[in-house]
Amino acid sequence: MKIMVVGGGGREHAIIKKIKENKTVSEIFALPGNGDIAADATCVNIGAKDIPAIVAFAVANKIDYAVVAPDDPLVLGCVDALEEKGIPCFGPRANAAVIEGSKVFSKNLMKKYGIPTATYEVFDDMEKALSYLETAPIPTVIKADGLALGKGVIIAMTRDEAKDAVKSMMEDKVFGASGDHVVIEEFLTGPEVSVLAFTDGKTLVPMVSSMDHKRAGDNDTGLNTGGMGTVAPNPYYTEDLAERCMKEIFLPTMNAMNAEGRTFKGCLYFGLMITENGPKVIEYNCRFGDPETQVVLPLLESDLLTVMQAVTNETLAQTQVKFSKKNACCVIMASKGYPTAYEKGFVMTIPETVQDKVFVAGASLKDGKLLTNGGRVLGVTAVSETLETAIDTAYSYVKTISFDNAYYRNDIGQRALAAKKQ
Ligand code: AMP
Ligand code: GLY
Predict the structure, then answer these.
(1) 273 phi and psi, to 5 degrees?
(2) Quick check: 422 pLDDT over 80?
(3) Of all protein residues, whose CA lies closest to atom 15 belonging to ligand 1?
(4) Ligand 1 binding pocket includes 214 (Cβ within 6 Å)
(5) How far is ligand 2, taken at its centre, from the CA of residue 128, in Å?
(6) In this structure, is residue 117 part of a structural domain?
(7) Higher pLDDT residue, 61 or 365?
(8) Domain ranges, residue 388
(9) CA atoms 103, 108, 109, 113: torsion sign
(10) CA-CA distances (angstroms) from residue 326 to 323, 346, 412?
(11) Is the pLDDT of residue 149 over 70?
């Protein structure tokens, strides 16, 4: 089978490595891939948002199955366009990807179907938003409606900060049209849990839970990033909680999307906060999380391509999806300065012995040398019997990898470890 994976980050690298395990796969194309994915797939220089070029490539190369991994092409209708040409895909159509593409849509969906989430108001008029903020409870959370590279959420600790956030989104348009509508919502507290789930619209199978580390600095300090590391499973996500989430959140979401005529097929990501009043949805994503995928897929014992095809064919109920009971830890190595200014183009040295543990996010190939080419450069994943040994092993791998200006957090997994010991 000829497979095409749209995207080119660490998540896509993890997906590609897992798909490669399937013996029927003859070739994998990554659009655009990156310098290191090139060792596992044929990289094609087509951007993940260039839908006409992606479709033309898939048709010309007789692709048997396509996986669309990032949010942008999903929201832009990449799956719809490929399906029109008869190419089976993993990923939701645009009318379902809106669950991530519009926060106003997802909040209204949860309200309509009684799915627990932070209380909220939606504004399309800046003056009304500002006057609401005169009396709104503080801290509060301001969210731009559309996709904003994961940066469209501002936790405002003061009234002034909240007003500045609204102005930056609605007046200065720092997130472009995404700021035409904003959601202002209740500030929730509690541990966060990420749960990815396979769903074909009839059946929903949650994957092993995970914990992201979003802040740039140790002890959760500094700016929000795309994610500096992950562990799986997440110790806060007990069996009781899993049962409750399935009943109160996961299945109601699948059913709500069906009721809206927007059947979701693909990987549905639930960003949850475990509050004193139970689990609540912080966000939905219409895709595999990054860097959650880098700890979740290495624990998948079933064949990924088979599961993905079952989602496409709506036969998930008859398909085994089995996860190992082990633990995984992924440490992201970034360029110093990320998530703001950073330099790139430094030679990376990855020893052969850890090559299969590394999921590269930002790299280019020049004269046969792998160069850093992004803020988040790579993720190193270790799988082990215990969380403690997974963390230690991941860091021992990290120490063997080098590039100038490398930066990583030293405490990935420590909060999870502490929670486990409680
Ligand atoms: P998101 O980009 O939606 O994942 O949001 C980024 C981060 O902001 C989340 O991981 C949470 O830590 C935080 N966040 C989002 N919404 C809320 C909320 N209502 N209350 C508290 N924290 C939130
Ligand atoms: N790690 C969070 C995300 O993929 O959006």
Answers:
(1) -120, 130
(2) no
(3) 282
(4) yes
(5) 31
(6) no
(7) 61
(8) 327-421
(9) positive
(10) 9, 35, 17
(11) no
